[in-house]
Amino acid sequence: MAEIKLMKGNEAIAEAAILAGCDAYFGYPITPQSEVIEYLMMERPEERTGMVVLQAESEIAAINMVYGAAGAGKRTMTSSSSPGISLKQEGISYIAGAELPAVIVNVVRGGPGLGTIQPSQADYFQSTKGGGHGDYRLLVLAPASVQEMADFVADAFDLAFKYRNPVMILSDGVIGQMMEKVTMPEQRPRWTDEEIKQQFDSWGTLGKPADRERNIITSLELDPYRQEEHNHKLQAKYRLMEENEVRYETINCDDAEYIFVAYGSSARIAQKAMEQARAKGIKAGLFRLITLFPFPKKQISELADRVKGFLAVELSAGQMIEDVKLAVNGKCKAEHYGRFGGVIHSPEEILDALEQKIIGG
Amino acid sequence: MDVKEIIKPENLVYTKTKNMTDNPLSYCPGCGHGTAHRLTMEVVEEMGITEDTIGVAPVGCSVLAYDFMNIDMTQAAHGRAPAVATGIKRVWPEKFVFTYQGDGDLAAIGGNETLHACNRGENIVIIFVNNGIYGMTGGQMAPTTLDGMRTSTSPYGRDFATMGHPLKMTELIAQLPGTHFVTRQAVHTPAAVRKAKKAIRKAFEVQKEKKGMAFVEIVSNCNSGWKMTPVDANNWMVENMFPYFPLGDIKVDGNLVK
Questions:
Q1: Which residues are B179's β-sheet partners?
Q2: CA–CA separation, B116 vs B253, rounded Å?
Q3: Is residue A12 included in any domain, yes or no?
Q4: Residue A1: its pLDDT value, please?
């Protein structure tokens, strides 16, 4: 049986990256996610699996190192926290435009600006709606526990390569910093040079043999009609993700009249609020998003046909609520509740909001 | 000799390297980029490393370098080529990796990436084409624009007091222990072309020997941006650019040239 460890979320992500057969990590320190690169540097993954770890001169350099290595067919990742992710957005746009597989971890802190080092979920918009310039989407996974921080890394790599698209693990300062028990997955070997060649010689910059055309990693297409065509191709890919990759968890939704919609740390707190509501006789359920993009539109829309209302709970001034409202489409009440700027709501505050805004509102 | 006779292989004295595609170059007639591309690709072919070479194109006039260089290439965001090349080289240490960048890309927006890739001693080659102006965007002031030089964003001439001094990036990075070979060349005469090619060859040899960063600046012209004929531009370059950006090796075998 696998060993149970007590780890921080950030450490779990780092260990899971080594175990996922990641080839390279490029990062830059920022609170509250610096443990990721600290753990990797301490762990000497170059000796365990041959994984490269490099502290870049900036978040900008780090994401561009990811772009280079990902374009060369390697499993590559970076991590940062909100202001650092803002700096990476240009590079993420290039990675999406050039259709490269990469994993980006955001351990969100409060903003705007330098903001605070305390937890937040105010990066929902920049994670799910593009973030950088142009029409693109990231596939966004939202872990709600240290175990999921570990489990989602290999999943993120698999999805990144399945769609040749950047995948974001959108965590927050709570999940990154807290310690929980975690069972680590088995070590997955890194791909051999031969395996990389077999899989990616059709597009990766692996060096051009005489018998094939050169491979070019670029997001540039000056002809607007061809650029539009490329955009159509990207959009078709995002629609495919919406069809195939929606992930969520429902707790007590079967008989629920009221549903909390939440992800990450807010889902943990909302779960407690749901239990308190049930104890008071309120039929409350929890809809926990695991993928933020693709968003479970259809599932929430179906629930909206039979429940009385939704309360979107997030550590922001109201971002995910926009997607909830689009899915509910006026069929029942849908309101937002959240503390923000680094402040974390309590279960009591959430329950109170349900009673005030949805039940009594 | 008729044409059929002339093109027989035994009569050819020169052929274009297979590492250049047949795509017509998008550069202005008279521009040095075409020659700098060719030299780089010839060196790669002559060293027999075509299958193991990965190039990184910048943003600038040479953004489409991958249309002309017949090797695997990545097009980098503006200024980030040294970081992109670092990423590639670190995961494929046995491959040959080079960046091809202009002055705006390398010395302005990409100053930090250039400095740190050099300081880490990344085992890559940087080809830096310096023509003192932003060519692609239509002739704006570059970090290497000379004092008093007119551009579309310094229409009355570059003024030290408000616009700063032309940046000698090559001298700057030569001070860093991570750089092994640093040189400044030109491609405006046959003699200069031969020297430049030797320098590029040496740079790739440094990478082969895993000795760290090899950095080749090529001072070039921009007759369109400078608003001169190609001949005038080359003469102007010799008279004005070379005194400020003198040609020659700056660092050889890790030692600054006295």
A1: B213
A2: 20
A3: yes
A4: 61
**A170 & A285 share domain:** no
Helix/strand/coil for A28: coil
Architecture of the B3-256 domain: 3-Layer(aba) Sandwich (3.40)
Ramachandran area for residue A276 (φ above 0: left; ψ -120 to 50: alpha; else beta): alpha
Q: Are strands B140-141 and A333-337 parallel, antiparallel or unpaired?
A: unpaired
The helix or strand, by DSSP H or E, that contains position B91, with its residue range, turns out to be helix B81-91
Q: Are B38 and B17 in contact (CB under 8 A)?
A: yes
The amino acid at A208: K
Instruction: Choose among B54, B63, B77: nearest Cβ to A64.
Output: B77
pLDDT tens-digit profile of B96-147? 999 999 999 999 999 999 999 999 999 999 999 999 999 999 999 999 999 9
| B155-183 average pLDDT score | 97
Cα A152 to chain centroid distance, Å, stands at: 9
Domain assignment present for A126: yes
pTM greater than the 0.90 cutoff: yes
Percent above pLDDT 70 for chain B: 100
Cβ-based contacts of A95 with chain B (< 8 Å): none
Half-sphere exposure of B191 (CA within 13 A, CB side): 2
Reading the block at residue A38, the tokens are 């600290």
Average the pLDDT over A234-257 and give the result.
98
**Parallel/antiparallel/unpaired status of strands B96-102 and B53-57:** parallel
Going from N- to C-terminal start, the domains of chain B cover 3-256
Instruction: Please state the length of chain A.
Output: 361
Are A91 and B71 an interchain contact pair (Cβ–Cβ within 8 Å)? no
Q: What is the CATH number of the domain that holds A87?
A: 3.40.50.970
Q: Is A291 helix (H, G, I), strand (E, B) or coil?
A: strand
Alpha carbon distance A100, A141 (integer Å):
17
Q: How many angstroms separate the CA atoms of B15 and A152, rounded?
A: 54
Domain that holds residue A169: 4-183
SS3 A168: strand
Structure tokens at A118: 């305390």
Q: Domain tally for chain A?
A: 2
Q: What is the 3-state secondary structure (H, E, C) of B48-75?
A: CCHHHEEEEECCCHHHHHHHHECCEEEE
Q: Residue A340 maps to which CATH number? A: 3.40.50.920
**Segment (H or E) for A94:** helix A82-97
User: Could you write out the three-class secondary structure of A230-259?
Assistant: HHHHHHHHHHHHHHHCCCEEEECCCCCCEE
- State whether A54 and B51 contact (CB < 8 Å): no
A8: distance to nearest CA of chain B, Å? 28
Inter-chain touch B88–A205, beta carbons under 8 Å: yes
Half-sphere exposure for B43 (CA within 13 Å, toward CB):
26
Q: Which of B63, B66, B88 sits opposite A68 (nearest CB)?
A: B88
- Closest partner CB to B90 (pick from A52, A58, A220): A52
Q: Which of A20, A18, A38 is nearest to A28 (CA)?
A: A38
